[in-house]
Amino acid sequence: MKTGNQKLVKEINQSIVLKTIQQKGPLSRSELASLTGLNKATISTIVNNYIKSGMIYDIGIGHSNRGRKPVMLLLNKNAGFSIGIDLGVDYILGVLTDLDGNVIEEFNVEFTNKNPDYVISLIKSSIQQLILKAPESKYGIVGIGIGVPGVIDTDNKILLAPNLNWRDVDILKEIEKSFNLPVLVDNEANAGAYGEKKYGSGKNISNLIYISAGIGIGVGIILNNVLFKGKHGISGEVGHLSIHFNGKKCTCGNVGCWELYASENALLKQAKNLSTFHNLQQQIDIETVRVNASKGDKEVINLCNNIGKYMGVGIVNLINTFDVEQIIIGNRLASLKDWISNPIQRIIDQRLLLKHSRNSLKLNYSELNNYSCALGASSFAISNFLFQDDLSFH
C-alpha cells in the first residue's frame, strides 16, 4: 500500500473501502477487512463515517454458518446521480444514471451543423434536460462525463476531432462555467471501453480493446485492469493508422487510414454505388443496410463482407501489438454483426501471428449497444466523485 502522511493514508483507505463495497457488495465488515487487508478497527471507523454520510447503508443480516450473523453493507446508489454524454459526429446521447450506472433518464438529439458553439449549446441543453429529471438526493448531480470522437489531451481539451472538423476546442471550460459541476472529457472510445468493462461484455476481463466503429473508428484500451491513455492521453487513435501506403486521403491529413475502409462512413459511401439503393428516395443509413442484408440482398451482404475483411485487418494489428484477451466491437457498425463476424474471424484466423492467441481470443460485440460511451462517460464522473478519479478495476 502507498505510504505518506496520515491524511493521505486515511483518504487512500477510505477510497479502498468504498471501491470494494461498490464493486463487490453487499459485504460484511469482516469480509471488507479480509478483501482490503485493513484491520477491523479501521474498517469499522470508515464504515461508520460512510453510513453517517449516506454513502453506504446496511441491508440487514447476511448468512453465516456459525457465530453472530453479519450485517451486510451496500453502496447507496441513490445518494447522487451522474450525467454521461456521448457526443457523436451527428448525434448527442445523454444519460442520467445512479451511482451504480443504472439509466434513470436519457436524452437524444441529432444535428447536421457541426459548428462548435452550436454543438456545445446542444450539449448544454441535453444536460439541462437531464438535470431537471433527476430525483432528489443528498449529493445531487455529482458530475458530468463527456465522450468525444477526437484526440483529448491530459487537460481534457479537444486537440483534434477530424470528423467534426474541430481543433483546439475547450468544451470542459464551457460546460463547467454553465453548470458549476465537475466535468471530465475523454475520447469516446475510452469511455466505451470503460463502460463495457464496468457494465458490459468486458466484465472479468483484465486486458481488452474496445473498438468504437461508427462514422470513424477509435479504440479504448484496458491493460491489467487500467484504462491505458498513453503519456499525452492520446492513445487509441488507430482509426488513423495507415493500412494502405498509397490509399485514400483522410480528413486527418494522413492517407490509407483504417477508418476509410472499415467504418460506418466507409460502408455508407460504398452503399450509394449499389444498384439496390439507386432508386431509394430516403438517405441511406446503417439501418437501411441492415434491413436489406437481412432480406438476403447479395450486393449488400458482399459489401458487409468487404467491410468485415478490412475490420479484421485492423484487429489483427491490434492483437499482435497488445496481446489482449478480448476484442469488443461496439457503436453502430456492431448492428451488422451477423454479416461482418465471419469475414472478421477469417482474417484473424489467416493472419494472426500466433495460433495460441487465436485460440484464446474472445471476439465479442457490445452488450450495451449504443450506450457504451454514454455509460462509460457517466461512470468517469462517478469514479471522480467516489474515488478521486481512480479509473482502475480490481
List keywords for this structure.
Arc Repressor Mutant, subunit A; five-stranded mixed sheet; globular
Structure description:
The chain folds into three domains: 6-75, Winged helix-like DNA-binding domain superfamily/Winged helix DNA-binding domain (Arc Repressor Mutant, subunit A, Orthogonal Bundle), CATH 1.10.10.10; 81-194 and 373-387, ATPase, nucleotide binding domain (Nucleotidyltransferase, domain 5), CATH 3.30.420; 203-366, 2-Layer Sandwich (Nucleotidyltransferase, domain 5), CATH 3.30.420. The model has no long low-confidence stretch (mean pLDDT 90). It has 394 residues and is an alpha/beta fold. The radius of gyration is 23 Å and the shape is globular. It has helices at 6-24, 29-36, 40-53, 116-132, 171-179, 188-199, 259-262, 264-271, 286-294, 298-322, 337-351, 355-360, 372-387; strands spanning 56-61, 71-75, 81-87, 91-98, 103-110, 141-148, 151-152, 158-161, 166-169, 183-187, 208-213, 217-223, 226-228, 326-330, 362-365. A hairpin with a 3-residue loop joins β3 (81-87) and β4. The strands form four sheets. The protein has a five-stranded mixed beta sheet with strand order 5-4-3-6-10. A five-stranded mixed beta sheet has the order 13-12-11-14-15, sandwiched between helices. Strands 7-8-9 form a three-stranded antiparallel beta sheet, with no helix packed on it.
